[in-house]
Fold each of these.
Amino acid sequence: MQIKGLLLDIDGVLVDAGRSVPRGPEALRALASEGVPYRLVSNSSQRSRRALAMRLQSMGYSVDTEEIFTPAVAAARFLVSKRASAYLAVRDEAKEDFQEVGVREDDRRPRYVVLGDMGEDVTYGRLNRILRFLLGGSQLIALGRTRIWRAPDGPALDVGPFVALFEEATGRQAIVFGKPEPKMFEEAAHSMRLKLGDVAMVGDDADVDVAAAKRAGAGLGVLVRTGKYRPGDEARYDPPPDEVHDSFPDFVDHFLSAVRSAAGSP
Ligand SMILES: [Mg+2]
């Protein structure tokens, strides 16, 4: 199988414990100079992709904003393709991912409500406003189902519990973007004009990154032994990874030597 593009998880793969992994920036540059298309795939719904790109740049990575793919980016592409209006229940700094592609905001009769991590912006009034949109016929789009994230001062509610709250209240399921949902991997591949079957997913989570991408149809699932990896993860989930490497740069070394030998063979 020939892999034509890569989906790279950010936390635990490019970044570990708040800094870039050793040789990470050089490995990403090597992929770019070899002409391998890639997307950096994160489940974060707190920040815009421009803010994520700036964070990676501060750690030494050469990253363009367009190379970052988040649930908000996937949802914005979906809304534009449907020419649909939306009420954006996300942090203000996450709104620009929708605004820059021209999603029409509507706070009267939106066709969709986009629910992300609202952080301190959550109020009972705002929750009921969303509830009333949904009871009036708007459809809920969730930017993931992550339950808890680790804030600097301790565990904090992520978007998942709020998705469950509205599903319980309305009896209707949300459309969910974000890993491990198949749509997230598909949209990320399509944003490179590739089919998911021609793409490899590289992650530190054997379940949510690797097994989920393979179930969705990714051509190759690669587990790296950094970030949240724990010994035994290779065999813990179904399907298991196709390849396991000690780190993202080790994977890139292996991948590029295969690309070069394929290009050099008659
Ligand atoms: Mg990760």
Note: The chain has two domains: 5-70+180-264, 83-177.
Amino acid sequence: MSYISLYRKWRSQNFDDLVGQAAIVKTLKNAIKNDRLAHAYLFSGPRGTGKTSTARILAKALNCENGPTAKHCGTCQNCEKITRGYSVNVIEIDAASNRGIDEIRELRERIRYAPVEGRYKVYIIDEVHMLTPEAFNALLKTLEEPPSYTVFVLATTELQKVPLTISSRCQRLDFGRIKLKEIEEHLMQVAGKEGFAIDEKALNLIARVAEGSMRDALSLLDQLVSFSGHKISYDNVITLLGTADEELLFAFGDTVVESDIVKLLELIKKGLEEGRSTLQVTRDLVAHFRNLLHVKVGSGEILELTADYFARLKQQAERFSLEKIMEVIRALSKAELDMRWHPHGRLVLEVALLELLEVRQAPMAVPRLTRDDLPVAIPERLAQIKSRWPDILESVKKKTLFGYVSLHEGDPREINNKGKLVIGFRRGYVFHKERLEEVKNKQAVEEAINEIIGEKIAIEGVVDNDKKETTLSAHAVADFFEGKVLT
Ligand SMILES: [Zn+2]
């Protein structure tokens, strides 16, 4: 027997099976019970939300030997034929595949003949917005004077493209995206009946990715079974989708808060491993920050996440200001657009993320000691360094952002008797002094000086001691004993 996709196999066969469209089911059931059926329905809504399934169920409800009934038997000849797709009374036209000119013409010819078996002829026109203007005109004429035994179901994913002349002649039913919980439950049922073992986290991710489309959710489940057999784990889903797993996304979030550049670049590298595209990683990041945004402004429940995931998002959202989250989303969305034409997508992502950090790291205006207060010897070279200091800073910035941030907090003070350039930091800024003296940063500064001044000069840092303070801070005490206090 040839393989039947899960979506087809488990497609809803009666009104009560339909997932997530309670209002529509109620409307149609009542219309049948009260004999108030419309001649034309317009089913609008995203793909995979049950439009065609509902149309077929309606056809069975109308043509069942026990009908018209809201509870068709499903076993009589008429029901069976419709289920199998053999019924001559149910005519399905896919406007997307051939734009419908011949079909609509034929429809107009045939519509005059009453149904041979059953009571109604049901015309289901899928993706009706794709019809050509000629086909629309032909359809319109039919809709204006439909024979009593016809019911039209026009289905569309793009309501705004359906001409008003058509939609105004139909009763419109809007199919909403199916709720995450409902998709999860249905997947669980299908998995149970098929004998698949699937963990909760995997189930939640499939449902989230499906974005309200049951068809997408079941297709994904199908692919997962081919990919990993009957036992499906969260990691299988991650690998198949090529999506970034939640650990990675939260790590990105933390790194942005902490402005950890090295870690950020590592994460990008990690994100791109296993064949993920830069675009995919960027989209996942945008989605993550969108989640943070919703949680931050208190509309997190629309995300329909598991309680654990929600709690984790909330925790991370607290580390961000709302402005920062929006800034990240804007920057990443722009990067997503840019990388469509840029040959080096990864570079675009890296720059976008680094710029976000840089904005955070660029020091705010810090009050500085006036030059006159400081006891500095000013040989010619020192004067030269001082006058070119902004250029030196710029050069360091290109080599190391961390080195730059620390250097920015210091000033060139003197060239000491060892021929070293002394860079002074304000009291309490020992952290910056120490970071500047790390080999990598020190080298970068020395190279920069060489580039700008044309002379190799070593550097060392000192931290000021505020003499007006009567009690010394721990930092100042440490500096004092290191003998690096300016006097
Ligand atoms: Zn029946």
Note: The two ends are 92 Å apart (CA to CA).
